[in-house]
Amino acid sequence: MGNKINKIKLLLKKDGLGLTIKKVYRYIKAEYISKINVFSFIYVKLNNKKIRSEIDDILKGDFERIIIWRSSFGWNVPLFQRPQHIETQLSNKKCLIFYEITTVTDKVRTYKKVKDNLYLVNFNNRAIKKLIEEEINKIKKPKYIQFYSTDATVSLAELKQYITDGYKVIYEYIDDISPLLIGAKELPVNVKDKYEYMLQDTENVFVVVTADELKKDVLSKRKNEKIVFSCNGVDYKHFTELDANYKLDDEFAKIIEQGKPIIGYYGALATWFDYDLVKKLSKERPDYNIVLLGIKYDGAYDEARLEEYKNIYFLGSREYNVLPYYAKEFTICTIPFLINSITNATSPVKLFEYMALDKPIVTTAMPECKKYESVMIANNHDEFIELVDKAVKMNREDNNDYYEILKKEALENTWDAKANAIVELLKQYE
User: Fold this and answer.
1) How far is Cα 36 from Cα 124, in angstroms, rounded to an integer?
2) What is the separation of C-alpha 362 from the centre of its chain, rounded to a whole number of angstroms?
3) Measuring CA to CA, which of 207, 215, 354, 391 is 20 to 30 A from 369?
4) pLDDT at residue 25, as a whole number
């Protein structure tokens, strides 16, 4: 309860009373009211035979294993992230995916087909959850529950029941276990308990790690088995095969019209973002425009008061399907993060998308960014500004080798490759 109150306080500070009330109502409706929705329950009961037959038809399909994704990360969200990418690619590799939606973002009463072997499921609808799991339990193929290490919804008791029912667990250890990442002052007991259990159970749990720091933590707690490194990646075609006729919105177009180099960033504006670095860049390089696309994850952006700087533009988020059209207008792409326990264990999705965009990349000294030849690493603020200056002047004619490295490293880090690493691990034990 304490974490929920702290989240409400953050929302009040960030969004004001009116918007906070709307968000709290949507959350209560999604997490509580939807679970006791009598109409949805009755719908499944009245159509039980029909729905059960449809699920049985799905379970007769061409697949080698079943994976149920259980985490409160909706499908139709502005930030199309690792869960959607990984599950899409797993569905291409003979994995039948049942993906848990959130009723805040996805209008799914029971289940909905996205593509072959990939279905969205409303697990808040207890009747459809029970029906699907009953039919899955009849199938004599490997079955898995997959979830995020930062997830605070699915309980440890529920996961243990899945194990009792013959499932294995795919634990996606994707970030430092920090309360800041879930917008809380304290780590929820649910998250902590699952973390401790999943790293101890070597018989039933497969651990996917996305950063070297996370792998070190895993190896300090369990043997080097049933572990796979699968950092974040990129849908290369999504960022390279663009419609030449797409029209940008007027707000962004006016910034382009100024003719200044655009120093770009997209993603969360949170406590781990180095606001002082961006302010310094703004002051010392007034001939650059700094464009930030994304969401205010917590109150840190407002506290930084970046709106006081004339050449810093925060434009809010852009939907994933149009994001490449905006990011390709950046002169260079940046990740100006603080270096701390969170960013030491972060594999930024945007890093690989930047590579595919064919733009020079400047970041602070995050370990997962240091691995790539195409990334210019700054160890302090002055060095960051120097590298930005260098990157702004780069062009393909004089720096063709660099641009070839960008392409090479993007193609080496596709979501297809990341999902394949997971499947190959599972196959060893099936």
Assistant:
1) 8
2) 21
3) 207
4) 46
Give the span between the Cα atoms of 137 and 140, in whole angstroms.
Answer: 8
Residue 197 lies in a domain: yes
**Three-state DSSP state, 6:** helix
Strands (E), 118-231: 118-121, 143-148, 168-173, 205-209, 227-229
Give residue-wise pLDDT tens across range 389-407.
999 999 999 999 999 999 9
Question: Which is more confidently placed, 126 or 410?
Answer: 410
pTM of the model: 0.89
pLDDT of residue 39: 64
Write the Ramachandran bin of 360: left for phi over 0, alpha for psi from -120 to 50, otherwise beta. Answer: beta
CB 63 within 8 A of CB 47: no
Q: Do 14 and 79 share a domain, yes or no?
A: no
**Can you give the length of the chain in residues?**
430
Instruction: Count the alpha carbons within 13 Å of 302 in the hemisphere toward its beta carbon.
Output: 12
Closest Cα to residue 299, out of 2, 7, 1?
7
- Is 315 contained in some domain? yes
Residues 292-334: pLDDT tens digits?
999 998 889 999 999 999 999 999 999 999 999 999 999 999 9
CB 74 within 8 A of CB 102: yes
Q: In this model, does residue 183 exceed pLDDT 90?
A: no
Residue owning tokens 């997962």:
368
Where do we find the tokens 């060893």?
428
**How many structural domains does the chain have?**
3
Q: Are 193 and 111 in a shared domain?
A: yes
Question: Using CA atoms, how far apart are residues 290 and 377, in angstroms rounded to an integer?
Answer: 19
Beta-sheet strand order (sheet of 118-121): 111-115, 118-121, 95-100, 65-69, 143-148, 168-173, 205-209, 227-229
C-alpha 372: how far from chain center: 21
Do 216 and 413 touch, CB atoms closer than 8 A?
no
Q: How far is CA 313 from CA 262, 266, 307, 386, in A?
A: 10, 12, 7, 21
Which of 325, 188, 330 has its CA nearest to residue 248? 325
Q: What is the pLDDT of residues 7-26, one digit of tens each?
A: 545 555 555 555 555 554 45
Beta-bridge partner residues of 361: 333, 375
Kind plus residue range of the DSSP H or E element containing 289: strand 289-296
Q: How far apart are CA 125 and CA 247, in angstroms?
A: 41
Give the Å distances, CA to CA, from 152 to 181, 189, 244.
12, 9, 42
Q: Which domain holds residue 2?
A: 1-31
